[in-house]
Specification:
The structure holds two protein chains of two kinds.
Chain A lengths: L1 H8 L5 H37 L5 E2 L12 E7 L4 E9 L5 E9 L15 E6 L5 E4 L4 E10 L13 E9 L2 E3 L2 E2 L1 E7 L7 E8 L1
Antiparallel strand pairs in A: 1-9, 2-3, 2-12, 3-4, 4-5, 5-7, 6-7, 7-8, 8-11, 9-10, 11-12
Chain B lengths: L1 H24 L4 E3 L13 E7 L4 E9 L5 E9 L18 E6 L5 E4 L4 E10 L14 E10 L2 E3 L6 E7 L4 H4 L6 E6 L1
Antiparallel strand pairs in B: 1-9, 2-3, 2-11, 3-4, 4-5, 5-7, 6-7, 7-8, 8-10, 10-11
Classes of the chains: A alpha+beta, B mainly beta.
Chain lengths: 203, 189
């Protein structure tokens, strides 16, 4: 559009041949620019597709770097009587950024018709007292220190800080280098002192 | 000259666009393949989550079937306090609160049937650092047999992505407690 408008300005006094020459030069120059732009865009697009780490990349040697980002987890222990879900963020360096664990209050007292939020017990991760390790085969351990929310029902258990430990195994499928899923054997979920199991899914 | 450049640019754009579309749209990771299966479909590295006795006994497992009916290696880890002798101790490291076992590859094997049903026999040896209350510790072995079923969602190399397990004698509890419930679980590539 701009090309057409600009070429129209040169039409009046100089004769048809000269106009045609100027138009030709301008067309050629603009054509060059556009083709360069197209080339740049195509090269950029192809590089993005080829080089950006994608879902489905497989890891063969593991480290703490492969457990990184936000994970949603579910746990059950004591023959699946106690259950909980959590969201936490291993930082790819053996520590955690944040974490929240929510367990059903119903395991400790009778269910009632109060608001759903009051039917659960919430715990917050203490990153400074929590850590994990991953060996080269993708197996590892984690220690998670949880502090109960001050808003918890007095019937929630435990009422104080507790330590949970897990044995973890990472899937080798990764997204941006982080595993998409980890399997867990859990020890001391909710400070009950019995084994459990669970799964964490990334993303 | 100008016309040629335009044609070249258009051609390049069309080819680039096609490349982009292929890169974005074509599924890369997996394809659903029907049976028949063979040992070669169960290959490389799998992690498993297995429980028994109404999920009281739990273990995470890493095994590396080699595609020809045997394994390269494997590790099984379970909480120590499952075995009723040593309670969970938050002052101990996660490693000390666990029992570990290594797969004895020469004594372990699997056979995949054409329909994907697979029999595994795995011999596990207790790690030297295990607490004596861990089953078969120190340095004893136990045999665990699994019936597994391979799912048809194989990857581009024909390897199965996940499988379901029915387990016999997880952590040797089927021998120690004759009435122990069998285990179950799943494995992911």
């Amino acid at each position: 559009m701009l090309v057409i408008e600009l070429t129209c300005l040169f039409r009046a006094p100089n004769g048809a041949r000269q106009i045609s020459k100027i138009e030709g030069k301008r067309m050629s120059r603009n054509g060059n620019r556009i083709s360069k732009l197209i080339v740049a865009l195509v090269v950029f697009g192809l590089s993005t597709v080829l080089w950006v780490p994608r879902m489905g990349a497989e890891v063969t040697t593991f480290s703490v770097k492969n457990y990184n980002g936000s994970y949603a987890c579910r746990y059950a222990s004591f023959e699946d009587f106690f259950t909980a879900v959590s969201q936490y963020t291993p930082n790819g360096a053996g520590g955690y950024t944040t974490g929240t664990l929510v367990a059903s209050l119903n395991a400790f007292t009778g269910f009632n018709s109060a608001a759903p939020a009051s039917q659960f017990c919430t715990f917050f991760l203490e990153p400074s007292a929590s850590f994990y390790s991953i060996d080269a085969t993708g197996l590892g351990f984690e220690e998670l220190s949880w502090t109960p929310s001050v808003a918890n029902s007095p019937l929630c258990f435990p009422a104080a800080f507790f330590i949970d430990q897990d044995q973890i195994a990472l899937r080798n499928l990764t997204q941006n280098g982080a595993t998409i899923r980890a399997e867990l054997s859990d020890d001391n979920l909710l400070d009950i002192g019995v084994p459990g199991h669970g799964t964490c899914v990334g993303g | 000259m100008s016309k040629r450049r335009w044609v070249a640019a258009k051609l390049f754009a069309v080819l680039g666009g096609a490349g982009l579309a292929l890169g974005i749209c074509v599924p890369r990771a997996s394809a659903a393949n029907p049976p028949p299966f063979s040992n070669s479909n169960y290959d490389n590295r799998y992690i498993c989550n297995v429980t028994s006795d109404e999920n009281f006994f739990t273990a995470v497992i890493r095994v590396t079937p080699n595609g020809n009916g045997t394994y390269t290696d494997g590790t099984l880890v379970t909480p120590l306090d499952s075995f009723g002798v040593v309670p969970f101790n938050p002052a101990d490291t996660p490693e000390d609160n666990s029992c570990s076992y290594g797969l004895v590859a020469p004594s372990s094997s699997y056979v995949v049937s054409a329909n994907g049903l697979t029999v595994e026999v795995q011999t596990w040896k207790a790690s030297p650092g295990n607490d004596p209350s861990c089953p078969d510790s120190p340095l004893g072995t136990f045999v665990m047999s699994n019936e597994i079923v391979l799912r048809a969602n194989v990857n581009a190399n024909g390897k199965v992505q996940n499988a379901s397990i029915s387990s016999g004698n997880l952590l040797d509890q089927g021998v120690i407690f004759v009435t122990e419930d069998p285990g179950d679980g799943f494995c992911f590539k």
